[in-house]
């Protein structure tokens, strides 16, 4: 690999200026590929509600990283058929057999955080009132710092907004030619709404940050940040507030049991359908079968795509691999470096208790 140092003197607050004013402390300068040109595309995040007299958390985000050093394959070249489940609505969606030319799940605008909360139905308003009562009277008056979302989701762990494809000029050095046409992508939790009650860092909607490296020496890398369009994300985006409980922090103690009862009421009144999936797709990324997947063990994989021409990140849909996968699988599949085979497994309380995959 060619030796190179690609740096910039700008921090994440330059890229996401909407968050900069909320920081509790000055941000340090950091190495990155980012230029100030990206800052014009960032939008404010108005969806974080003030809770118990507190202000919204400060900027930046943490995420686990996955590096792809080979050029992304265009989805149009795929010929195998898979089941992609449409998650564009809150209703039960039909599973359709489709080729890899399937479009993204929704043609709705990309803005993920509505500025004005939609008007809730009577059932939703009742459940929301119960949630507020739990939040006010059942939750401890003061949460431990390790689970308080106002503390956990602050500083370098605070959520960030989506970012459309944005050119990032190289300030110094050159990008190694062996990486040309590839992409650096990271996946990690990034809550779109301030959680109710305790919060664990493993919870939070999956967001993909993609840096597409140019094929031409005179072109700029393109940065794009998009949420994985999971069923949970879409339901809560339409509601304008948290609706589904989180896996790691949603059912703890008396308040967790009460929120579980509210969740059951939402299911019975048709506000949500857990059969559509409750996962976050926020754990890792994997490439197999010529396709890129966002993984989370609490749900099926979500097929995603990075456009090799524009750098746009698109969610293709929830994938059950031709009906062969009905439950979530490990988010950490392993690839044989010699044969190229990919190995994964899943387990559950119903037979077959353990299922082994090889691709």
TrEMBL record:
<keyword id="KW-0408">Iron</keyword>
<dbReference type="GO" id="GO:0010436">
    <property type="term" value="F:carotenoid dioxygenase activity"/>
</dbReference>
<protein>
    <submittedName>
        <fullName>Uncharacterized protein</fullName>
    </submittedName>
</protein>
<comment type="similarity">
    <text>Belongs to the carotenoid oxygenase family.</text>
</comment>
<keyword id="KW-0223">Dioxygenase</keyword>
<dbReference type="GO" id="GO:0046872">
    <property type="term" value="F:metal ion binding"/>
</dbReference>
<feature type="compositionally biased region" description="Low complexity">
    <location>
        <begin position="92"/>
        <end position="111"/>
    </location>
</feature>
<feature type="compositionally biased region" description="Polar residues">
    <location>
        <begin position="1"/>
        <end position="12"/>
    </location>
</feature>
<dbReference type="GO" id="GO:0016121">
    <property type="term" value="P:carotene catabolic process"/>
</dbReference>
<keyword id="KW-0560">Oxidoreductase</keyword>
<feature type="compositionally biased region" description="Low complexity">
    <location>
        <begin position="61"/>
        <end position="70"/>
    </location>
</feature>
<feature type="compositionally biased region" description="Low complexity">
    <location>
        <begin position="35"/>
        <end position="47"/>
    </location>
</feature>
<dbReference type="GO" id="GO:0009570">
    <property type="term" value="C:chloroplast stroma"/>
</dbReference>
<dbReference type="InterPro" id="IPR004294">
    <property type="entry name" value="Carotenoid_Oase"/>
</dbReference>
<dbReference type="Pfam" id="PF03055">
    <property type="entry name" value="RPE65"/>
</dbReference>
<keyword id="KW-0809">Transit peptide</keyword>
<feature type="region of interest" description="Disordered">
    <location>
        <begin position="1"/>
        <end position="120"/>
    </location>
</feature>
<feature type="binding site">
    <location>
        <position position="332"/>
    </location>
    <ligand>
        <name>Fe cation</name>
    </ligand>
</feature>
<keyword id="KW-0479">Metal-binding</keyword>
């Amino acid at each position: 690999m060619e030796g190179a140092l690609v740096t910039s003197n700008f921090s994440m607050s330059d890229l996401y200026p909407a968050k900069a004013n909320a920081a509790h402390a000055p941000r340090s300068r950091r190495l990155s590929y980012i230029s100030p040109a990206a800052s014009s595309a960032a939008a404010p995040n108005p969806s974080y509600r003030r809770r118990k007299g507190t202000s919204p958390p400060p900027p930046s985000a943490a995420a686990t990283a996955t590096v792809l050093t080979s050029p992304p394959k265009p989805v149009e070249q795929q010929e195998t058929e898979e089941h992609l489940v449409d998650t564009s609505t809150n209703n039960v969606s039909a599973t359709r057999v489709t080729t890899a030319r399937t479009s993204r799940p929704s043609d709705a605008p990309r803005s993920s955080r509505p500025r004005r909360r939609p008007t809730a139905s009577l059932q939703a308003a009742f459940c929301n009132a119960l949630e507020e009562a739990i939040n006010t009277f059942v939750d401890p008056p003061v949460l431990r710092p390790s689970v308080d979302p106002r503390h956990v989701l602050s500083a370098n762990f605070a959520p960030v907004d989506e970012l459309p494809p944005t050119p990032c000029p190289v300030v110094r050095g050159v990008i190694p030619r062996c990486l040309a046409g590839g992409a650096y992508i990271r996946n990690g939790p990034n809550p779109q709404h301030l959680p109710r009650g305790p919060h664990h860092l493993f919870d939070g909607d999956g967001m993909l940050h993609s840096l597409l490296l140019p094929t031409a020496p005179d072109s700029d890398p393109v940065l794009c940040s998009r949420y994985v369009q999971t069923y949970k994300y879409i339901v809560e985006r339409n509601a304008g507030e948290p609706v589904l409980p989180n896996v790691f922090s949603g059912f703890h103690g008396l308040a967790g049991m009460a929120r579980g009862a509210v969740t059951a009421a939402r299911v019975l009144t048709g506000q949500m359908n857990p059969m559509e999936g409750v996962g976050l797709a926020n754990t890792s990324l994997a490439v197999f079968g010529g396709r890129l997947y966002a993984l989370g063990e609490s749900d099926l994989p979500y097929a995603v795509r990075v456009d090799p021409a524009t750098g746009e990140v698109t969610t293709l849909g929830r994938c059950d691999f031709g009906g062969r996968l009905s439950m979530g699988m490990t988010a950490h599949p392993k690839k044989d470096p010699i044969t190229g085979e990919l190995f994964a497994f899943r387990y559950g309380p119903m037979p077959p208790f353990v299922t082994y995959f090889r691709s």
